[in-house]
Amino acid sequence: MGILWFILIFISLTGHGDAHGPDSCNHKGGLCRVGNCASGEYLARYCFEPIILCCKSLSPTTAKS
User: Fold this and answer.
1) Which range, 7-11, 12-16, 39-43, has the best average confidence (pLDDT)?
2) Is Signal set as a keyword in this record (predicted)?
3) Fewer CB atoms near the end CB (10 Å): N or C, the chain?
């Protein structure tokens, strides 16, 4: 019964609001985090709204030659 509730909550989170999922977040240079973004990051969108955030770095990464 407990696993059924977990599955229902997961499905509810994936279909709620502006949730794009982890693939979309990672593809655009972000990381999915639970709770809060780390220092030096900002909330770009949600992986699974409202709990799992898609955070991106404040400073752009530079490629070295």
Assistant:
1) 39-43
2) yes
3) C
Q: What is the pTM of this model?
A: 0.57
Q: Which runs of consecutive H residues, i.e. helices, occur in the chain?
A: 2-14, 22-27
Query: Is residue 63 one of the residues assigned to a domain?
Result: no
Residue 26 lies in a domain: yes
The SS3 assignment for 42 reads strand
Please count the structural domains in the chain.
1
Instruction: Encode pLDDT of 23-57 as tens digits.
Output: 888 887 899 999 999 999 999 998 888 889 999 99
Cα 36 to Cα 42: distance, rounded to the nearest angstrom: 9
Residue 34 DSSP class = E
